[in-house]
């Protein structure tokens, strides 16, 4: 499942980012990535894959997902 593939603190980061319960936050996160890829494919995949990867990675900062949230 998607949950099993996420880093240890991903749940906290998703809830913090979207300000909704985790079960909805993870769906928003997955749907956002799916929407970007679907749009890219449906418009002819004109951009290079690295450009789309950059867009997907900009959805959230994955670099902090193995760390607890500090505020």
Q: Which key terms come to mind for this protein?
A:
71 residues, mainly alpha, 4 helices, elongated
Mean pLDDT: 81
Rg: 13 Å
Task: Report, as a whole number of angstroms, the end-to-end distance.
Answer: 29 Å
Structural class: mainly alpha
- Largest sheet report: none
Query: Low-confidence runs (pLDDT<50, min 5 residues)?
Result: none
Oligomer: single chain
Principal-axis shape equals: elongated
* Portion in helices: 55-70%
What is the number of helices? 4
Strand content: under 5%
Succession of helices and strands:
HHHH
Number of strands: 0
What would your notes on this structure say?
There is one protein chain. With 71 residues, this protein is mostly helical. It is 62% helix and 0% strand. It contains four helices and no strands. Helix 2 crosses helix 3. The longest helix is centred in the middle third of the chain and has 21 residues. The protein is elongated, with a radius of gyration of 13 Å. The chain starts with a helix and ends in a 13-residue tail after the last helix. The model has no long low-confidence stretch (mean pLDDT 81).
């Amino acid at each position: 499942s998607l949950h099993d593939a996420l880093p240890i603190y991903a749940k906290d980061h998703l809830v913090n980012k979207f300000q909704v319960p985790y079960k909805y936050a993870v769906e928003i996160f997955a749907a956002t990535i799916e929407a970007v890829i679907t749009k890219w494919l449906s418009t002819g995949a004109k951009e290079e894959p690295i450009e789309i990867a950059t867009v997907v990675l900009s959805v959230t900062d994955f670099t902090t997902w193995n760390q607890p949230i500090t505020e």
